[in-house]
Design goal:
Number of helices: 3
Structural class: alpha+beta
Number of strands: 5
Distance between the termini: 80 Å
Oligomer: single chain
Helix content: 40-55%
Shape: rod-shaped
């Protein structure tokens, strides 16, 4: 009787965690789904819920600690951020920029605060060099 209850328990846990994983955009419970499957298999071999639960918790934590940093790094490298796409674009100065004051540029259909190491007058074209916080670093277009 305990064998059937343990088996059903892990099956329900796996189903619930799978539904949770499918409905979220981040990797939240995939590690515990895997450790739940291992616990389910363990329930067929051993009749010890404490052992199964220990495998579930420790296995999920170990899997998460080992694989999450690798996955986060891989996923961040493959996704391009919109702001990264602004680098190299040409814009037009709408408010003058000096080395001591923040100006404004129009790039890619939007107005952005901008900084530069040189004085740039209104209506001059600039090239976006980088993004620093919420400001674009620009230079005069040559």
């Amino acid at each position: 009787m305990v064998f059937i209850e343990s088996y059903l328990f892990w099956l329900i846990v796996i189903i619930i965690l799978t539904i949770l994983e499918v409905t979220t955009v981040n990797l939240v419970s995939v590690w515990f789904i895997i450790s739940g499957i291992v616990s389910l298999i363990t329930s067929f071999i051993y009749d010890s819920f404490i052992l199964e639960f220990t495998i579930f918790v420790i296995g999920g934590i170990i899997l998460m600690l080992i694989t999450k940093p690798l996955l986060d790094k891989k996923l961040k490298r493959t996704s391009l951020d919109y702001l990264d796409l602004l680098v190299g674009k040409i814009g037009k100065v709408t408010e003058p920029i000096t080395p001591d004051s923040i100006g404004e540029v129009y790039v890619d259909g939007k107005r952005w605060s901008a900084i530069a190491d040189e004085e740039i007058k209104k209506d001059e074209n600039v090239v976006v060099l980088s993004l620093e916080g919420v400001k674009l670093r620009v230079r005069k277009e040559k």
